[in-house]
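Hey,
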Amino acid sequence: MSPASVLLASALAVAPALATAAEQGRSWMAVGSPERFVMSYATPQTDDGVLSLSCTRATKEIGIAFVHEPAGAKDGMRISIDLISEGGNVLLQAEGHRLLLDDVFVLEARTPLTPALQRVLAQGLTLTLMVQDGSAEVPLEGAGKAMAALIEACT
């Protein structure tokens, strides 16, 4: 299992204690350690997660794990993910893996935190993730403090 998959699974495991909203449904959750900072958009107390963003402090790289199964999904496949918000857009190359425990397909990308990526993540109301055969919209409402901590960890 790749580090981003482990981070997504870890974030979902601690979701009940870290939920940013008491409501049912998806919300932003975050957890930090001296080694890394992770934030996820998921449903508390479930395995329902859509997106995980992480920063490994030592490398200053952003990890993105997006739960999406494209047509013809195969372990190790390479695919582009376009991250779009009111702050701009960034095209990343991701690798796909099936998480057998949850039977979900995850697209994972790692990249330095560029100014363009920082604008995409920090500016706007909605983050849209587009791949070859679909997209997902993730509201950025409620992510402000965690997003600022993620950006700080990677700068």
